[in-house]
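hi! just following up on the protien thing from before. the input was this:
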Amino acid sequence: MARCNDCNKFRGTVAETPEVESIEIEGEGADRQVKVEVRLYLNCDDCGAEMLTTTAEDYHAADYEAFEGHELEIESIDVEAVEEGEGRKRTIGARVEYEIRCECQATEAAPLVSESIDVAGVPASDFEEV
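and the predicted 3d structure came back as:
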């Protein structure tokens, strides 16, 4: 339990929808990978005020060799919190869905790639007070 500055009480926390800080394609050819960084929030279970936060990042290796020579653009389309465990063993991570398109595609065309990446969970005890 953490102390809520708004309620001025010790309260439980609820994981809120994470915020994608950045998502990008790194590397070239067969070494390309998707890197995503998210900001995770834990809010007061009583008043909803933001109490604790942290950032986490993860990588997703992907075979994008077929798109060699193309200028790829990536964008996140959905993000959700992923919680596991309880109490001291509670971890909070994120699942980020993204799409990859080529600059030469028409905007209404289907994406070249539509996948998701699971950002590894961070122990709730490692979050910092706001």
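Residues 2-129 form one domain.
The mean pLDDT is 91.
cheers
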